[in-house]
Design brief:
Largest sheet: 9 strands, mixed
Radius of gyration: 54 Å
Number of helices: 4
Low-confidence stretches: 424-428, 431-467
Distance between the termini: 162 Å
Mean pLDDT: 81
Number of strands: 33
Helix content: under 10%
Structural class: mainly beta
Number of domains: 4
CATH architecture of the largest domain: Beta Complex
CATH topology of the largest domain: RNA Polymerase Alpha Subunit, Chain A, domain 2
CATH class of the largest domain: Mainly Beta
Amino acid sequence: MTWLRIAGLRLVLAVGLGFALWIFVSYTEAPDRLTQFRNLPVSAEDLAPSLVIVDQNGLPNPSLPPVDVTLRSIGETSVTPSSNDIQAYVDLSGRGPGEYSVAVGARVTIPGRKPEIAEIEPNFLSIRIEQEITRTVPLTIEIEGSVPFSYENLPASATMRSQPVSTVNVRGPQSRVERVAMARAVVDIDGRTASYDSPRQLEAIGSDNQEIQGVLVEPASVNVLVPIVSSAGIKRVPVVPQVVGEPASGYVVSGLTVEPQFVRLAGGAGALEAVQSVATEAVDIQGASRTTSRTVRLSGPASTPLLFGEPVSATVTVRITPIERPFQVSLPVSVQLVDVGPGLLGSVNPPIVQVTLSGTAAQLATLDAASLVGSVSVRGQGAGVYRLTPLFTLPKGITLAGEPPRVTVVLRSQPSPPPSVTPAGTAAPPATPPAVATPSPPEGPAVPTLAPAATPTVEPAAAPTAEPPTETPGS
């Protein structure tokens, strides 16, 4: 029994020593191997469909910077991967617009015993994410070059699958799409004598007329048609507006415009040679005091009708403004005496003065001369003769030109009423003066005596005119 135990123990020990020896030999002859793969592409995983990776200028940048990946093979391995069997990636799940520093991962895609990822350099990448948006912008066709003499190009048009196109969509990062003002198709018709009809690529153009990179125009191209026709028998002439009547007094015609400014006529060479312009029907501005706009028909000669498609009417705008040049007018104005003190009679000489008023023609035209009155205030003045300046109240915008006229004002005391007359044969009762009670001075401090008011300065008056002055009694 003891012998069996010893034999079993020796067997286990031998197996352990054999396994250890195998491991030692394996690692000695086939140690860990490090293999480096350079410039491996990095893919973005789990990025939301409405987001896009951009560079620092906002341009779409789906290609991330490459990385170096080092693999460690432990002992013997049955697989030897190539660079195509290694995937480097960044996980962008759950990330919205913004800038991030994202860890780089890698995986070996071949089956079997795989080596380990020993190192990734760099192991973090700076990534900027923006929202992807779509905008609708107008389409513009830009024509370059010119057609030969006796030919002309008509307005260009764009179509897509035989449908007219005037707007297109622009898609891309928000910071780039918001800079797009329009889409442009450039057409060169220099020297052509036949219509241009060809597909043209579209460009996204900013407000500075420069192309915006990093966006997609949908559709990417349209078919552009530029009709080119012979101009023989066609003549382009100006439209001349006809205006009749005169504006209101004080107003003047300061401008005249017509739209369209030119039209084309068709006809024989001789008939076209005699036509220099096309007139509009008359626009009446009689008595107008503001800008007038009318749409009237064109009245071209019957021998040279308008080319097909040309407008048959025009809009005439007559700009009417007030005459801003100042005018003057002289008017007689009556003068009134006001604020005459009690017990005084006043007169003003002359009672009517000549004043010169200044203003625009429109302002003076509305002036009511009968409502103009000058006033002279003698508040606080006693009897005497004064040279005073009347005050004139004038409408807004009208002023007094030059020095205002002065008038002579005479203030005198009113005469006492005459004594009453007693009928003959009747003795008048003796006048008994009424008893006047003399009040006793009040007790207390003395009351100061007020000094008399100063007498107003009296200027020497000029000799009165032959016209009698108007007397104004005081209240």
